[in-house]
């Protein structure tokens, strides 16, 4: 738990990684607000302090979710839809704009390992989503905020929490990370400044 950060907004809390991150943020002592389009996708025992129903593409909804917040975790995704999108980058721009207006400094954003690759090596079907991740990444890098840009490899929903994953700046040495370990890293970033302003690869080793 951070001394200066007590209230955290999570965007993307009903996705696979979001559902693994939310309980860890609560367990670490944070008051968590989530912005969700469909609250029915939250588990019944979710323990978020506040649920705001809305859309990250609607700036007024983002403003409502950000009331009283000290930090933000962005885990926006398109699930299995790989078609061209601007949702993640436009949503991130809305979040950044509200953060600046409110004086909120800390943001942890989840993108993809493909941003650490040469674009020509990214699988063609992943290029449209990667292009929006790239726009999101640019928005974070140029925001002037204390951002952590997290670039995970394959995210395993069926893998355990180990808390013994690796993290490295601008580099990735493993092929997978569990949703739980990825969520653990997001939450850990709230209470330290080690990765602020950096691009981080995270990976684990699982049996």
Strand order across the biggest sheet?
3-2-1-4-5-6-10-8
Distance between the termini: 30 Å
Secondary-structure element series: EHEEHEHEHEEEEHE
Oligomer: single chain
Overall 3D form: globular
- Give the amount of beta strand, in percent: 15-25%
The strand count comes to 10
| C-alpha-based Rg, rounded | 16 Å
Structure description:
The chain has 207 residues and is of the alpha/beta class. 30% of the residues lie in helices and 22% in strands. It has five helices and ten strands, in the order E-H-E-E-H-E-H-E-H-E-E-E-E-H-E. It has helices spanning 16-27, 59-65, 87-102, 127-141, 179-190; strands at residues 7-11, 31-36, 50-53, 71-74, 106-110, 146-151, 154-156, 166-169, 176-178, 198-203. The strands form two sheets. The protein has an eight-stranded mixed sheet with strand order 3-2-1-4-5-6-10-8, sandwiched between helices. The protein has a two-stranded parallel ribbon with strand order 7-9. Strand 1 (7-11), helix 1 (16-27) and strand 2 (31-36) form a beta-alpha-beta unit. The radius of gyration is 16 Å and the shape is globular. The protein starts with 6 loop residues before the first strand and ends with a strand.
């Amino acid at each position: 738990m951070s001394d200066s950060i007590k209230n955290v907004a999570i965007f993307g809390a009903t996705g696979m990684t979001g559902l693994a991150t939310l309980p860890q943020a609560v367990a670490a002592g944070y008051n968590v607000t989530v912005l969700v389009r469909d609250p029915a996708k939250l588990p019944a025992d979710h323990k978020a302090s506040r649920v705001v129903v809305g859309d990250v593409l609607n700036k007024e909804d983002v403003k409502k979710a950000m009331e009283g917040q000290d930090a933000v975790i962005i885990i926006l995704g398109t699930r299995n839809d790989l078609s061209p999108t601007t949702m993640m980058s436009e949503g991130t721009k809305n979040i950044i704009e509200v953060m600046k207006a409110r004086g909120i400094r800390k943001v942890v954003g989840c993108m993809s390992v493909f941003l650490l690759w040469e674009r020509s090596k990214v699988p063609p079907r992943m290029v449209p989503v990667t292009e929006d991740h790239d726009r999101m990444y640019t928005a974070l890098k140029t925001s002037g905020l204390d951002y952590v840009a997290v670039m995970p490899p394959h995210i395993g929903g069926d893998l355990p929490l180990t808390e013994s994953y690796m993290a490295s700046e601008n580099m990735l040495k493993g092929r997978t990370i569990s949703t739980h370990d990825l969520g653990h890293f997001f939450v850990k970033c709230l209470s330290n400044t080690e990765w602020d302003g950096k691009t981080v690869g995270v990976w684990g080793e699982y049996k």
